[in-house]
Amino acid sequence: MGQIMDEVIEDETAFVLRLYSGERKNLVPILQDVCDRLGYLPRAAMERIAEHLAINRGEVYSAATFYNQFRLSPPGRHTVKVCMGTACHIKGGQLILEAWERELDVDVGGVTRDGQFGLERVACVGCCAMAPIVVCDDVVHGRTRPTTVKGIITNLNEREHDIRGDSGQGD
Amino acid sequence: MIFEEIRDRAIREWEGLRNSGRPLILIGTATCGRAAGAMEVLERIERELGERGIDADVVQVGCMGHCYAEPLIAIAKPGYPPILYGYVTQGTASQLIENFILGDDPCLEFALGALEENELIPTIFDMPRFRYERRILLERCGFIDPQNIDHYIANGGYSALVKALEMTSDEVIEGVRRSGLRGRGGAGFPTGEKFGICREAEGEPKYLICNGDEGDPGAFMDRAILESDPQSVIEGMTIAAYAVGALHGYIYVRAEYPLAVERVRFALRQAEGLGLLGQDILGSGFSFGIELVRGSGAFVCGEETALIASIEGGRGVPHPRPPFPATSGLWGKPTLINNVKTLSIIPHIISKGADWYSSIGTEKSKGTAVFALAGKVINTGLAEVPMGTTLRDIIYGVGGGIPGGKRFKAVQIGGPSGGFLPESMPDIPVDFDSLTEAGVMMGSGGMVILDEDNCMVEAARYLLDFTQRESCGKCTMCRLGTKQMLNILEDITNGEGRLEDLGLLMELAQDVRDGSLCGLGRTAPNPVLTSLSYFRDEYEAHIIEKRCPALVCEKLISYYILPERCERSCDACVGSCSVEAIYAGKGGVKVIDQEKCVKCGICLDSCPPQYSAIVKLSPLSLVPPEEKKPEKSEEGDG
Ligand SMILES: Cc1cc2nc3c(=O)[nH]c(=O)nc-3n(C[C@H](O)[C@H](O)[C@H](O)COP(=O)(O)O)c2cc1C
Ligand code: FES
Fold first, then answer.
1. Is the ipTM of this complex over 0.90?
2. Do A128 and B219 touch (CB under 8 A)?
3. In this structure, how many other beta carbons lie within 10 angstroms of the beta carbon of residue B46?
């Protein structure tokens, strides 16, 4: 996704704010909606939200940093989330995460230099029976190995180039 | 519309589907099914049915709990019993259509069993696990379309609400109280009593919250129920609201469960559409509305006061109790907060009666418990057993034991701060009080099974790392004490621990327990305490011998190629190595350059099983001194 133009931030934030009244309880749902639309919470958006709810910016920022779900910097074009929950850990989740870090040449929490991939950790997506789990964009991959990393990346790239391509069923 | 009409129509639809004369294909598309490829299988089935012009019904259902065998499909073809198939690939799906739907070969080689008694094949209920299981909450999961309220109603749904609305609220509360139901969110507080306190509490309006945060990693019972049978939760919430006099409810679902969010949202609209939720429910004069709230990925928000703070808007930080939410909760008003499973069992208790419910389970822990089995167990997935079932029966009877003939070592139960139960206690009855006595917690139902290849010290370090990250930072002991404990555990797993550290760990554990406000900090030391008391020898091996007995801790292990087992002409490991650390040494025997090795473990996977030449060694001193690495010129042909 990369950096977003100021007008887009302005428009999208304004769009979300029109859906919500200025009540304090709407803070988290607004942050969620803005983050869903923009991929992260730019400073300008948080400022607009603070004005809308008539609270200070610090409060918005404090909520935004409290929850793991919110990003404050632009995400990669694709997001790879490696599960670090207990079941995945017991089945070698750490080795999977390290394999992703090596393959993408980025530390967890970061975005590759070309902006293609963001690598994140997630604390369980509830698919523990299929551990270890990796979620790429919105697709959950079960029973992954360090050796399946390359295949998942190829798959993502293919899907992008050929939207109608049959992805097959993993291996 | 009166309920009889709603129900009759639902039954007609359900029976119509079952007796249409057309083949009926059920496919499990809950998250676990999807992770195994269910959506691709569904696409293939729909495409083939379309292309071949076959008249059949395809229905997406939730999770049956046999997650290990996903993707699952069930086929009901006239003239045959409904049959369940597991491990279905796109290829198997095509074969089933070709040979069974079009032909008359039910492909029993792919079948797990029939879903009804019949002459042809055994049913899945003949599996050994069903000797131990008793399915009440999970009964409908995987058998009905969660996005079709008629399926729920045709299978008994909402009749409990009708019955409750004819009772007084006191009678409902009394029924729940007599059933002996205790909360399934972790602490096991008597639910009837909580209802009573909230009912009596002063203040209007009252609120009701369904806690679907399910933050415990390794637990997925609530997700499965929300995705597979969401109406049961909505019905339970409505009955509870009627009992305590709440007009407005929230269902808080964690952000990591997008499919559950979607299905609950849809289910709410369907219930409203039929007048089972909203103004003047079924003409009773009772009104109740439910709003869906998405969590935002903070573990502590599963704690009730933090969850309430989060709904109010802002940081989800816990507050001291008392006051308890039942008297002063959301916006200072009386608020009933219960777990997903607690609420969804309520309709069963109302329908079948308190005596029926209290006849199941043990004296102090009534009913069934739903567990999520994960980790090193064969049948990963969901299990529902009467309270008091032994650990052995759950892991071996239902779970099928440990894969690969490995030895069972421990089970991590009760969430990240529940603690470990060791293999030496296989006959412990799993209920609230027996577990508390053993120093662990029942929690909400996650069981992660560890085998001989898991290191207890490392597992304790992992869990503490988790709680430490998730500490909201309000209490000093929770914020800093857990950090200190984590540092010590890291030293030990890195081979830099000292024996005195063990005493220090115990002391810190006590301080963190005493100095924390909410359950997160108060229970965070449990994994350390239980692993220390049941597996002290492992801690000592790390400290004294610099050895990790389970061969897990990276700093204490090396990968090594046994020269006598190496096939020499095989290059599998060399090609697999992610950092080019493996080279051909003297006579073609492969050697790992220990300096370069990042211990990713890929070579171990790649070495063909007939050679199994790669092993892990600990302590590091077991690796023989390396032979000299060949010079550049020879390296080229590797
Ligand atoms: C750190 C922490 C996390 C919790 N997480 C959850 C959770 O994810 N789901 C849940 O139902 N209860 C959770 N609880 C328990 C709740 O505070 C509360 O006791 C429960 O929702 C009450 O429901 P019950 O009476 O039905 O058990 C948690 C408690 C603590 C201390
Ligand atoms: S622990 Fe990874 S999905 Fe639950």
1. yes
2. yes
3. 14
